[in-house]
Amino acid sequence: MWVDGLSFEPVPPSSNALVPTATTSGSTTSQPTINMGPKISSLIASNTPVYTDKPVELICHVTDSDDSPESLVYQWSTTSGTIEGSGYEVSFNDPITGTANVNVTVSNEYGVNDTASLSIPVINNTTTLNSVADSNLANSISVPMIIPILVVKYIPVYDGGINLAVTGGDVDVNMTLDEERTNIDTLTTGAINALDEGTQYHYYKNSSAQPSLQYQIVGTIEILEPMPNWDQPSSNVNISNVQDNSGDSNLPIIDYNQIMTQINAFDWVMNKGVKEIWIWGYDNGKERLWESNMSSPYGDVSNSDRDPYDLPIFGKTYTVYTYNYGRGVSEAVHDHMHQFEAIFGSLNYDLFWNKFVGKVGEGRCGDTHIPPNGTTDYDWANTTYIWTDIEDWTPNDTGQKVYINCTTWNGDSLTWFIFWMRSVPGMNNTITDGTKKMSNWWIFLGDYDQCKAAGINLEN
User: Fold this and answer.
1) What's the total number of domains in the chain?
2) Domain for residue 160, yes or no?
3) 300 occurs within a structural domain
4) How far is CA 27 from CA 20, 22, 315, in A?
5) pLDDT reading at 182 higher than 50
6) CATH number at residue 18
7) How many Å apart are CA 126 and CA 457, to the nearest integer?
8) 123, pLDDT greater than 70
9) Stretch 91-109: mean pLDDT, rounded?
């Protein structure tokens, strides 16, 4: 199998052991039992990619119903670098550029063992990430950055067709189950194309601009039953300044923990490298949901109430989006737009919200709901003209201004989203702010964990 870009091949275990059982008084024979021994379920690195001068943890997960964890012996080896420590979790240090092949053998006291190997790509790239605060090398991080996504389809069925009593009025009452499957696939492709295209920095001025992000489906799960929900205790929500826009707070909310268990999210995130989980569901007005919801070792930064308990936290960040297949591509990308705002705003509130987005009528770049010439939410079809620096944005408002109105994005929400994204500082931008240089902001979507660990910000 493939584990987040790493090749993981379990090796067949040794033969099982016959373990003699104690004889009862007066017995002449003893009946042996079979000790199945340890079985390695996964071998993972705590962070990927691995850099030559940045240690990572290697973790071997084992299942064993016959032996105590303390009785197991772990033998580690590597073709490059060193391994420090013992047991199921060790530190991997100082590998050289190339590929390091790590092996671990787990044995019990009877000699029953299991072996696994992990092929780890090692790059000499720590400087690119860690010195970005001084030299703006963030712009030289290899792009496009791949965002592996898991697509989950919740299509409740009844009597061979879609259960409209569950899905609600947005879903086409005339669609068959197969037609809805095709519809979801079409919506997914449309959202991927829009998001890829949106990261082409200044494409409207440079048609050769390449995308910074590339979304790729690595798995699809279909569940022909309703999305699970639960009555969320208000005490779970401990961030008072985050607005609850999920709907009527008296309604139950989608049970994201149960969904993550149902789809085995741990395996998809930790072993298969998934960064985003796209849930295609419905909005029936009977339960609440979040447009985006993040689980991260660094905390939840998303368009949700940021309940610290509503998603399982693994060793890597992942973001869950909940879409309505009764709507269109624009509504799906709309969810991502708010996630972009949440991440960029969390990194540098003043730079993003005050200088990039700006105030209404100020002629900066606007946001998801309000374009530069807009005055209210969802004002994408406003025909009023305005001078704006959206096509040449700089923090100090020194860029060249253009006189535009909604015809630039055809008065269409999806076209506006793509236009706005292409104005976000991207690959090879040369924007400065005094002595600071602007990062490629899309790298925070491409590898949030590495950016946080390296201390990268929007400008450095």
Assistant:
1) 2
2) yes
3) yes
4) 13, 10, 53
5) yes
6) 2.60.40.10
7) 16
8) no
9) 87
